[in-house]
Design goal:
The protein is of the alpha/beta class. The protein is about 40% helix and about 15% strand.
């Protein structure tokens, strides 16, 4: 019988990558999604049946934060994370043979704006504001479940680089000569290559003594200024106009997004993963970007 993995919210950028690579490893992959023809979130019995007898449940569900933080969007951002987590936890409680591992997404944005020191799982300082409140509520809804047969791991994921996702707007900025630093350019940029994210999931599956919260980010964050310089160099574009904060505010308004996504300094270090023995394939930004740009 094929091993079974369930991807909740598995139709996005990360979910598609995970589905392909789990299938390559011989897994049966089942997906929960609002998109047809997958099992929908309203089908509670279908979800329970899908999760029962699975080896692993990975929850990637959540409305994109690339939008304006008005009341309607804020509610959808929060509910799409906490409600889906509740549905999954209750389904596991009803399983006869629950998965041995449940991995839930979280976000590296949970830490405060940090330009002075890195944030680790043990010594990181939780921030404040809407995005942090969402992250805290998300993790709380996850860890409120007490599941004796299921290990629970929350991944505080940094910006994910791969073929698609956030790479597309960054590449467009550089291509059109707007690839200079944004704001002061000194804000830290924590990132992770999508291949490392997938390998981390496999590493956590294998190391059954591990549970709790893990930072998912490269051990070598860069500044925003360094990020844009690497992109310009690899794309062979010499000119990149910087974008001061007032211009970013105006641009974000017209593009229907928030400047926090660019201006918040995320200095996140994967201390627990490295102590547990995970070896990153893409430790440095130039290696990660080169691989993506060459293969896309």
């Amino acid at each position: 019988m094929l091993k079974k993995v369930v991807l909740a919210g598995g139709t996005g950028f990360v979910g598609q990558y995970f589905e392909k690579h789990f299938r390559n490893l011989g897994y049966e992959v089942r997906i929960i999604s609002r998109q047809s023809p997958h099992t929908g979130w309203e089908d509670k019995e279908g979800i329970r049946g899908m999760i029962d007898n699975s080896e692993m449940l990975i929850n990637l569900a959540g409305k994109t934060v690339n939008c304006r933080y008005n009341a309607k969007n804020k509610k959808e951002i929060l509910d799409s994370r906490t409600d889906t987590t509740e549905v999954l936890g209750k389904a596991i409680e009803q399983c006869e043979n629950p998965p041995s591992l449940w991995i839930n997404s979280s976000t590296a944005t949970i830490y405060r704006h940090a330009e002075d020191k890195p944030m680790t799982e043990e010594h990181g300082v939780i921030g404040s504001g809407f995005s942090v409140d969402v992250a805290k509520a998300w993790e709380r809804s996850f860890f409120n479940f007490r599941l004796p047969k299921t290990r629970q791991i929350a991944l505080r994921i940094a910006i994910i680089f791969g073929d698609g996702g956030v790479m597309t707007p960054y590449r467009n900025l550089v291509k059109f000569g707007l690839g200079g630093h944004q704001g002061s350019g000194n804000q830290k940029f924590s990132w992770i290559h999508i291949e490392d994210l997938f390998n981390i999931v496999l590493f956590l599956r294998k190391n059954q003594e591990l549970s709790g919260v893990f930072n998912c980010s490269s051990p070598h964050p860069v500044t925003n200024r360094e990020l844009m310089a690497h992109l310009r160099k690899l794309m062979n574009i010499r000119i990149g106009l910087p974008c001061p904060t007032p211009m970013l505010e105006m641009g974000a308004f017209f593009m229907g997004t928030e400047t926090e996504l660019i201006l918040k300094s995320r200095w996140v270090i994967p201390e627990r993963l490295e102590k547990a023995g995970y070896a990153f394939k893409f430790r440095h930004l130039d290696e990660g970007l080169k691989q993506i740009l060459m293969n896309s």
